[in-house]
Specification:
Blueprint lengths: L1 H13 L3 H19 L4 H14 L8 H13 L3 H16 L6 H31 L3 H14 L3 H16 L4 H10 L14 H11 L4 H8 L3 H11 L3 H14 L7 H11 L3 H14 L4 H14 L2 H8 L10 H13 L3 H15 L3 H13 L3 H17 L6 H13 L5 H13 L4 H14 L3 H18 L6
Helix pairs in contact: 1-2, 2-3, 2-25, 4-5, 5-6, 6-7, 7-8, 8-9, 10-12, 12-13, 13-14, 14-15, 14-16, 15-16, 16-17, 16-18, 17-18, 18-19, 19-20, 20-21, 21-22, 22-23, 23-24, 24-25
């Protein structure tokens, strides 16, 4: 028995999960006490049961360990190695039971993300080759990117790059000029190694914009490029500095720079200044919906729902029935406490324009505010079912709300248990609550040993997160 205790300690040293490590430590101490207590049969049996119940978690390396290693490689920009590690994790996960569908989809998403990052790295390599006049090498790098990516919009960028190269296949200089005309490479003042990654991100961001807006954004100069990328990376102070300079360099009244600067101001707490800039944008571009969206978010933040309603009343008539505007109206009604009006608005939208996950989610939220939990649960179930039918990832928040409503209604079935176990990995900050729910489900099924085991898990998770016991 003492040797088994040592095995438990080895598992403890190998475990990367603090919660599991603490649990294994308790198993080791239990085993030691059994050994010191003359190997009492009941003590030994309980200890061996706990060891065997966790044995399947410790195949080395586990999919979870591989996934963590892949995450580290991905964060370090080592896309190829990260892809291989994620694929190994997925292979190991495929050997598990079908209840791991959520984690399997997460790994598939991560593999896809590494493929796209790797494709964009090959694209940047191709642009670097072109800067040096190495056309054949650039063509090979672009071919690799085309083979890896599954993003249709990015494939279009790659196709346009290849087409521009074919205009003058033997002349690196003329090829660069053709690509510059197409807006696919930087100008000479932007070609340093320090700016290449920023330029690549900027080009990708512009590709998501309407063509006339993207063309304007590309004309605003270096400070706008740096500021716009910083804004989208969440570096708001840096974004403010660059965008303020870009606005000073481009004082045209019809510029879109105030829109992006307003977003940076909003995220640094300068709300009134942001509203002033948005007024300017709406005056010059009355159909610029992002200006209304940002202004509404600021009014919501300030608790000024009446001002948000007045703002939305100024929208051009042909925009008022768009889903984006309906969402703004519905959220304004929700935040002002007009739940019934918000419910009716979302219902009418779904009946008129058909199913839309985001709109259905907002309707479910309003149903919950009206304490119409059965209706909310039906919507969450519909969203989950649609995601499962097309193998799309299910939003953990949707699963959380569905599970919690089901639990409060008295459901204690195996499907709900599996959902809570999945949520414990997807929302680890709430793991204590989910382990507690699992414990209660097992108890209702008469499986008291598992109920006690997950009760201990919940207690340890709660202690580590300083949470009060769940009710």
């Amino acid at each position: 028995m003492y040797q088994r205790g040592l095995v438990g300690m080895i598992f403890l040293l190998l475990s990367e999960d603090r919660l599991i490590a603490n649990y294994l430590a308790s198993l080791f101490l239990t085993g030691a006490r059994c050994y010191g207590g003359q190997n009492h049969p009941s003590c030994i049996a309980n200890w061996e049961h706990d060891i065997m119940s966790l044995r399947h978690l410790f195949s080395t390396p586990s999919p979870e360990t591989l996934e963590k290693r892949g995450d580290q490689l991905f964060a370090a920009g080592q896309w190829g190695q990260a892809k291989q590690i994620f694929e190994r994790a997925l292979i190991k996960l495929e050997k598990r039971a079908a209840s791991e569908d959520t984690r399997r989809l997460q790994l598939q998403d991560k593999i896809l993300a590494t493929r796209e990052a790797l494709a964009r790295e090959h694209h940047q390599t191709a642009l670097d080759f072109l800067d040096g006049g190495y056309v054949d090498e650039a063509r090979e790098a672009l071919a690799l990117a085309m083979e890896i990516t599954t993003d249709s919009e990015f494939e279009q960028i790659l196709s346009e790059t290849l087409a521009a190269m074919e205009v003058h296949p033997d002349s690196g200089i003329e090829t660069d000029e053709a690509m510059l005309d197409a807006g696919l490479v930087s100008t000479g003042e932007e070609t340093g190694s320090d700016t290449a990654p920023t330029d690549e991100v900027f080009r990708a961001l512009c590709h998501t914009l309407p063509e006339d807006v993207a063309r304007a954004y590309r004309s605003y100069g270096r400070d706008f490029v740096e500021g716009y990328v910083a804004l989208n990376n969440g570096d708001f102070p840096t974004a403010v500095g660059h965008l303020e300079q870009a606005l000073a360099d481009n004082p045209q009244p019809d510029s879109f720079i105030p829109l992006e600067l307003a977003s940076a101001y909003m995220n640094t707490g300068r709300l009134e200044e942001a509203l002033g800039l948005l007024d300017q944008v709406r005056e010059q571009h009355p159909e610029a919906l992002p200006a209304y969206q940002l202004a509404c978010e600021i009014h919501w933040e300030l608790g000024e729902t009446v001002r948000a309603e007045a703002l939305l009343a100024e929208l051009p008539p042909h925009l008022t029935q768009s889903r984006a505007v309906i969402h703004l109206k519905g959220e304004t009604l929700y935040r002002s406490g007009h739940f019934t009006k918000a419910r009716d608005l979302y219902r009418d939208c779904l009946e008129t324009y058909g199913w839309h996950d985001d709109m259905a989610r907002e309707l479910a939220k309003v149903h919950e505010a009206l304490e119409e939990t059965a209706a909310a649960k039906d919507i969450y179930a519909e969203i989950i079912g649609r995601c499962q039918s097309c193998h799309a990832r299910i939003d953990p928040w949707i699963k959380h709300r569905y599970a919690e409503i089901s639990f409060l209604e008295g459901y204690r079935d195996a499907d709900l248990l599996e959902m809570y176990l999945s949520l414990a990995t997807e929302i680890p900050a709430n793991a204590a609550v989910y382990f507690d729910r699992v414990s209660r489900i097992y108890a209702s099924q008469g499986n008291h040993s598992e109920a006690e085991r997950f009760r201990r898990f919940a207690a340890r998770a709660r202690a580590e997160q300083n949470q009060p016991p769940s009710s």
